[in-house]
Every structure is written in C-alpha cells, then in structure tokens.
Amino acid sequence: xxxxxxxxxxxxxxxxxxxxxxxxxxxxxxxxxxxxxxxxxxxxxxxxxxxxxxxxxxxxxxxxxxxxxxxxxxxxxxxxxxxxxxxxxxxxxxxxxxxxxxxxxxxxxxxxxxxxxxxxxxxxxxxxxxxxxxxxxxxxxxxxxxxxxxxxxx
Length: 154
What we know:
This protein is mostly helical.
C-alpha cells in the first residue's frame, strides 16, 4: 500500500507553518498506514528529520537553508533528489529517503508561501540610557563626528 499523498501533503504544510503538535499527529498517521519496507523506513526517516530540523531551527540543516518562496530553487532541489532516488547505487532506504525530499520540494513549490520581508532603512540601535559606560558604535560615531566638527570650528 503506497503512502497516502494527502497525509504527506498536509504534513508538509503543517511543518512549513510551524504547527508542530498537529504535524506530529499527522506523522503518526503516516507511520500507521505505512507497510514495513526498507523504502518506507527511509521515507519516514526523512519526514521525521524534516520535522526535527524545522522544529529545532538548526541553522546547518538543509531545511533551514531552503528558501521556500523560491519556486525555481525548489524545482532544482527536487530534480537533484529525483536523480538520487533513481540512482541504482543507492539502496531502498536511501531511495525512500530521497523520494520524501523530492515530494517535499514538489509540494512546497506548489504552495503560495510569501517571501520573508527584508529590513529596510536604518536599524534602531538600543542602548541602556542609565548605563553611561556602555560603548556602542553609534556612540563612537557620534563622538567622532562631534570631535571632527569641534576641530573644524577651531
């Protein structure tokens, strides 16, 4: 019995939206409906790894680095995972693992996920007003500018 794509699609939507409690329940449903094969074990391990890396916001994990709003990049990643999936040198576990990632990239590329907003303009620098000994770059630049103006006036 193949893995129900509706469950997997819902699971990917939940982890992208950071709804971890519901995603964990959905992952358990996927696990219960899977047959015990090496391919399915690899597929499930990939799903579980996606959940963990998204939940723990691991900066070094692949999922954390993927721009989910970039459709071209998602399709490129999907093609790469499909190549690995079709590689005869990989075992069933690995092919299942790469298949889960290919499915993830396919589903994410079909979702309408807005690009994260980039900060525009100047950033506000917070300093402790009560702590006069606190050195900040803003204070340094301000003092340097004042010293330059004082030198020009004399």
